[in-house]
Amino acid sequence: MNKRLFSLIDDLETSITTLAILAAKYKVSERTIRKDIIEVNELIKKYQTENIGMIHLDRGGKVVVPLKYSSDVLKNAFTGDYYSYRLSPQERADIAASIIINTNGFITLSVIADYLCVSRVTIINDLDIIRERLQEKQLTLISQPNKGLHVDGCEKNKREFLVKIGRVRPVFVRNNKINQTAGTESLESMLRQIVNGEEHTHQLFFSDRSFEKTIDCITVIVNRVYHGENIEINDFTHNEYYQLAKDILHYTSQYYHIDIAENEVIFLANFFQMQRFIRQKKRTIDSVKIQLLTRQFIEKISNELDINLNSDFEFLENLSNHLESTLSKPENGNEEITLLQEVYNRHANIVETVKNNIDIFNNYAGRYLTKIEMGYVIIHVCAAIERHCNSEKYFRVIVSCHAGIGTSKLLLEKLKEHFNFYVVAIVSAHDMKKINETQADFVISTIPLKDCLLPFVVVSPIITDEDYVRIGNQINKINISELKTSTFDGKQLSIQGIMEVIEPVLYETVPHEVSTIMKKIRKAIKYYIRQDELSEKESFMPELHHLLPYTHIVIDAECNSWQEAIQISSNILLKRNYITQEYINSMIKNISDFGPYIIVAPGLALPHSKPDFGSKKLGMQFTRLKNPISFGDEILEPVEFICTLSPVDSNTHLKAFFNLVNMLKTPSFKRAMHNANTSQEVADIILEYEYGLW
């Protein structure tokens, strides 16, 4: 029984919920919540004396709970105290052995007893069991008077022991050295993002059980390496999972600043041989093409509205994902929806701009988008404009949810994705009568509020497009001039603002080193900010410099036609088994059939095809042509730079693609790429400018 499971038992009784909401609340994957529900069902079988039925999921992901389900019955079977769960001697021995292994040097019986909230005598009585458990992995328990306990044996056997009990250890081992790397929760959250991203990259998908075991194994690797415990492996054979293991540990090492040796990769690859993989059907829609079209659409409406929305990554991501879903389904009807009609009436100029440029999607779909479909595109445009216009303005809001504080926080995270809110408080609905009119601009609630003195907007806990419209309408009613944006603690800090304050100080103290120090500070701040951003995301997105090391960069390639240029700009990916020749042929055919839509910025082409046509794993190759060449686009040509993309899904490459296009809009970046003399120099330029993106 762990802390999350205790909380989940209550949630299942007190609120109607879905798999997605629970996963977001506890910051774990949906597969983890599925596993927890299975565990709750086992508790129901064991402790619920009356046959009440099992918890199950309907087709929409809603969690269906039996009417007579009782959280009190399940929780009363235990003490109710997270840390006083009664372990069996076998469980206690496993955890004690884990503590001893993870201690540098010796550890005393008293310290182990304190960790497990038992007496020293209990640990003494458990010593024989601990020895037996360790001996199963050829490990020896060493006991020395006045020193304590120590485990002797090879690192490989220690790792295998720790991985075996991985699901138990993080729950009960507190304040031990295994938790000092980056915090157990943040480490596990990041690893889940990385592993899930590499599943899609390599098209190798773990079963739920194997996924959890993999997280355990990598957690053990990170913590052991962090504390200087490296593995010894004599067998250097590369199996079929070697590249998957190498890529996972490559990104892990980057984000946790540890050096992971080749032996660790082999250990993980061998571990993968014992795991179960499942088949997963690939999506056939051309996600990258939709993203390219979305990018062009954003540029066109930005020019027409005279508002620069090109640097809004959230806009590109949200709108392209929405269009991918819309265009992969049958045509939506034209029935009237009141909220959408309000959008059409309120934002006539935006509606006209979208209509003027919507053909870019009509042509791709081979049909006209319906009024409803176009209405939702307009909503995304309005949300982007709202973010742009209010980037320096703050709306003070109070968030209230009938399902409790936990769900309110989930609601808050969804709102932050689209609005620049300063949250004054998260308040239960029955306490709203205590809030006065001066405390906030308005309230966002999941139920109507009877005693609220402030304006309020009623939304659903999961936040729909219609809810965003309601909130936007409320914002439009607020007199922006009355907002006091610099007098409260929620003032937003920008990286650029911080740098502008730091730079004069450096000129006063170390004028000859300002440039070097500023670069280091900028990089450090950017890295710090991105860690927070990454921890909130569901999936891991590599950035451009991750996908374009110097080994994937070619300068001054020569060719005589655009077809030859495509072949040359894909050769590295082909040789390194990222793609097949079929994939290259498919890219050439797409350009022949649909024209030069791959030219995404002046002088830059981004060739790609669907993953189904031979893309084996996520990758990029950047090629600078010695003599620019024509693809048939009179406005954006000639093409000097070609960045070939091998995607594996609709999202993993999107951040790298977004950064590349934005960087190429910077004249100094383009000049630097044009003047670079080596592949390594190009890679360094990409890294420098990518960290400089605001």
TrEMBL record:
InterPro entries documented for this protein: BglG_antiterminators (IPR050661), HTH_11 (IPR013196), PRD (IPR011608), PRD_sf (IPR036634), PTrfase/Anion_transptr (IPR016152), PTS_EIIA_type-2_dom (IPR002178), PTS_EIIB-like_sf (IPR036095), PTS_EIIB_2 (IPR013011)
Domain PRD: start-end pairs: 285-391
Annotated ranges, domain PTS EIIB type-2: 395-483
PROSITE patterns to which the protein is assigned, alphabetical: HTH_DEOR_1, PRD_2, PTS_EIIA_TYPE_2, PTS_EIIB_TYPE_2
Keyword annotations from UniProtKB, A to Z: DNA-binding, Repeat, Transcription, Transcription regulation, Transferase
Domain PTS EIIA type-2: 546-689
Keyword DNA-binding: yes
Highest taxon of source: Bacteria
Pfam families: HTH_11 (PF08279), PRD (PF00874), PTS_EIIA_2 (PF00359)
Cross-referenced CDD domains: PTS_IIA_fru, PTS_IIB_bgl_like
Protein name as annotated: Transcriptional antiterminator/mannitol/fructose-specific phosphotransferase system IIA component (Ntr-type)
Protein source organism: Pectinatus haikarae
